[in-house]
């Protein structure tokens, strides 16, 4: 029916929801460490309020769905210099189990 689904990870986004997980004083201690670590790893989205967190969603929207891999998770990432990009990573999914779930969904749709 032309319906496609993809798995997207926005990365670690520092938003007001994130700040509610721990007390404010702990964030003040952790933030300098997180900024240092974010220069070494791509999974941190460093923009304030998650400005680039949707980069994977926007990138996916611009792709032809039939060319996307259904067993891949698309991650919003930033380089050490703050450049945003999307990184596909293979999910640890058993293809036979995935096919069984898909067939079950088709059965449920018919009901």
UniProtKB/TrEMBL annotation:
The lineage of its organism: Eukaryota, Metazoa, Chordata, Craniata, Vertebrata. This is DHB7 reductase. The keyword Glycosyltransferase does not apply. GO terms for cellular component: endoplasmic reticulum membrane. Keywords: Membrane, Transmembrane, Transmembrane helix. It comes from Ptilorrhoa leucosticta. The gene is Hsd17b7. Signal peptide: none annotated. The chain crosses the membrane at residues 24-45. PANTHER family: 3-KETO-STEROID REDUCTASE, 3-KETO-STEROID REDUCTASE_17-BETA-HYDROXYSTEROID DEHYDROGENASE 7. It comes from the Eukaryota. One of its GO terms (molecular function) is estradiol 17-beta-dehydrogenase [NAD(P)+] activity. One of its GO terms (biological process) is cholesterol biosynthetic process.
């Amino acid at each position: 029916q032309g319906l496609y689904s993809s798995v997207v990870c926005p990365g670690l986004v520092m938003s007001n929801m994130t700040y509610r997980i721990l007390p404010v004083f702990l964030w003040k201690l952790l933030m300098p460490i997180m900024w240092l670590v974010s220069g070494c790893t791509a999974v941190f989205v460093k923009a304030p309020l998650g400005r680039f967190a949707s980069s994977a969603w926007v990138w996916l929207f611009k792709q032809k769905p039939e060319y996307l891999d259904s067993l891949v998770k698309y991650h919003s990432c930033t380089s050490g210099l703050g450049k945003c990009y999307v990184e596909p990573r293979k999910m640890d999914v058993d293809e036979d189990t995935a096919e069984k779930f898909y067939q079950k969904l088709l059965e449920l749709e018919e009901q």
